[in-house]
Design brief:
Length: about 325
């Protein structure tokens, strides 16, 4: 922060911002004063001081109340954002007083959430009950963006379709994509199939920006053929139900299909393409600078992944 920015931050009074927002919401200095239990003259003085600090008028004052100037409109937007951030900070810090000793924000893609995170995060929470975990599901590209912008401490996703993100990654899990078809479908007699050979069928696909759909689209483009996409869905359970009802075939992680066994009368067929074997990775701006609780979680997730890989190899 430059010296002029530090000086500006010191001159802005949070109470004055709160009173300014109250005046804007109620349209009157008098009504704002009543709501905030402060004299109207004191509110007026604070607003005048705020205008002097910012060196611009913020309100048009008239007998029926006040109206925002263009500068006031801009300040109202920023003031609400600042006050909301303060409320959020207070809420998070109060959790420490209530016994929560850490807080980790995770954004993950649907494949990681369905296949691995329920058990892995459940085990971590049992070992560290005073750590709060906020988990949000997003597309892989959005996970990377959230980590880059600081909206998430940790990301968990497939990064094969993303380039130039400049984030640190660590291995977490591997999954394998398979073809899901209705029981008795012509392709169900095949033990394994190339994705190219599924392109004569209608497909039920995930969101157009999902890593699975992007990989499918790239594979189809490589052989110069389109995907006959009949419908987009947002979840794997919805995909299974659509396939069960004859709307097409679909591609999803094998373990996810196994975990959802019973959602429709379906079968899976192996895919022979190399791109169907995927790495799901942990993502951070800098693992070494993560808070202690986030680093504990990273170590836990990697240990669980290594244990799971060893069990599969045994």
């Amino acid at each position: 922060m430059r010296p002029t920015e530090r000086s500006f931050a010191r001159r802005i009074d949070l109470t004055s911002l709160q009173l300014f927002v109250a005046v804007c919401e109620l349209g009157s200095i008098g009504r704002a004063a009543e709501r905030e239990f402060i004299a109207a003259s004191a509110v007026s003085k604070r607003l005048s001081d705020l205008e002097a600090t910012l060196e611009t008028p913020l309100l048009y004052r008239h007998t029926r109340g006040v109206k925002l100037t263009p500068a006031g409109e801009s300040l109202l937007h920023h003031a609400r954002s600042v006050l909301f951030s303060l409320e959020k900070m207070q809420a998070e810090l109060s959790e420490y007083a209530d016994g929560v000793r850490g807080h980790v924000r995770i954004h993950a893609n649907i494949s990681a959430i369905v296949q691995f995170l329920p058990e892995d995060l459940g085990a971590f929470s049992s070992e560290h009950p005073q750590v709060k975990i906020d988990l949000e599901e997003h597309l892989s590209t959005e996970v990377l963006r959230a980590v880059h912008e600081g909206a998430a401490d940790l990301g968990i996703c497939n990064i094969s379709a993303a380039t130039g993100h400049e984030l640190q990654t660590l291995p977490y899990r591997q999954d394998e994509l398979v073809l899901i078809v209705p029981r008795g479908h012509a392709l169900s007699r095949r033990k394994a199939i190339a994705f190219e050979d599924t392109l004569d069928c209608d497909h039920v696909g995930l969101h157009s920006n999902s890593s699975i759909h992007l990989a499918m689209r790239e594979a189809a483009a490589a052989v110069g053929r389109p995907i006959r996409l009949r419908i987009h869905v947002t979840g794997l359970d919805a995909m299974c139900r659509m396939i069960h009802n004859g709307l097409g075939v679909g591609v999803m992680p094998h373990r996810a299909f196994t975990l959802m066994h019973g959602v429709g009368d379906l079968e899976c067929v192996g895919l022979t393409d190399a791109w169907t074997r995927r790495d799901i990775r942990l993502v951070a701006r800098d693992f070494s600078t993560l808070p202690l609780t986030a680093r504990l979680l990273v170590d836990h997730l990697r240990e669980r992944a290594e244990t799971g890989a060893a069990a599969l190899a045994a």
